[in-house]
């Protein structure tokens, strides 16, 4: 895990993620994620605070990282390409992740917050073949966190999943 000052391009990505995260319907934490390839940030998604289903498996709410990866999977399926081809492509993709919380002082504006992915999202990223992620700290325009997915462990399980007894070993 490396904390560093963001490049101009990374700042631009986080500005885009900020605007995107505001669309999230979650009242507490608004998350957004995008996939970067050749310097372009696409497949921007937000977290969805309602229960949903993915291939018959119920999950409590949709995290933005999973939402972005699902869109990439769907595109791959539409193109009729397989899993190994997908994982090969994903090696070159960097996921950018942001989280916005309400500013505790003014209670009026949203500010960046630490956005390390949870255990389940990490597991899904590894399965998909994602190698690198960059996520927001409390001030993403000054400092971001770059992580090699294979080196990163996060014991965090969201409270909704804890209630359902979900514990994922990566
Ligand atoms: Zn997650």
Care to describe what's here?
The mean pLDDT is 88. Strand 8 and strand 9 form a beta hairpin. The longest helix is centred in the middle third of the chain and has 15 residues. The protein contains 5 helices and 9 strands; from the N terminus they run E-H-E-E-E-E-H-H-E-E-H-E-E-H. It has 170 residues and is α+β, with helices and mostly antiparallel strands. It has one domain: Cytidine Deaminase, domain 2, CATH 3.40.140.10. It starts with a strand and ends in a 7-residue tail after the last helix. The strands form 2 sheets. Strands 1, 2, 3, 6, 7, 8 and 9 form a 7-stranded mixed sheet that branches. Helix content is 31%, strand content 28%. Zinc ion binds next to helix 4.
Concise structural overview:
With 170 residues, the chain is of the alpha+beta class. The protein contains five helices and nine strands; from the N terminus they run βαββββααββαββα. The radius of gyration is 15 Å and the shape is globular.
Secondary structure elements and pairings:
Elements: E1 2-4, H1 8-21, E2 30-37, E3 40-46, E4 52-54, E5 57-59, H2 64-78, H3 83-90, E6 94-102, E7 110-113, H4 119-128, E8 132-136, E9 144-148, H5 159-163
Parallel strand pairs: 6-8
Antiparallel strand pairs: 1-9, 2-3, 2-6, 4-5, 6-7, 8-9
The protein binds zinc ion.
The site of zinc ion has 6 residues, from helix 4.
């Amino acid at each position: 895990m490396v904390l560093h000052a963001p490049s101009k391009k990374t700042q631009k990505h986080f500005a885009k993620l900020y605007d995107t995260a505001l669309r999230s319907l979650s009242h507490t934490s608004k998350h957004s994620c995008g996939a970067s390839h050749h310097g372009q940030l696409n497949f921007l998604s937000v977290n969805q605070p309602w229960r949903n289903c993915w291939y018959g498996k119920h999950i409590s709410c949709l995290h933005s990282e999973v939402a972005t990866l699902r869109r990439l999977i769907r595109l791959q399926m539409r193109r009729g390409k397989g899993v190994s081809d997908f994982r090969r492509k994903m090696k070159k993709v960097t996921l950018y992740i942001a989280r916005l919380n309400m500013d505790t002082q003014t209670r009026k504006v949203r500010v960046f917050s630490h956005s390390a992915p949870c255990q389940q999202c990490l597991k899904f990223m590894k399965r998909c073949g994602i190698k690198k992620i960059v996520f927001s700290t409390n001030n993403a325009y000054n400092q971001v966190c770059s992580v090699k997915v294979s080196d990163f462990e996060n014991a965090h399980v969201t409270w909704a999943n804890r209630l359902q007894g979900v514990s994922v070993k990566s």
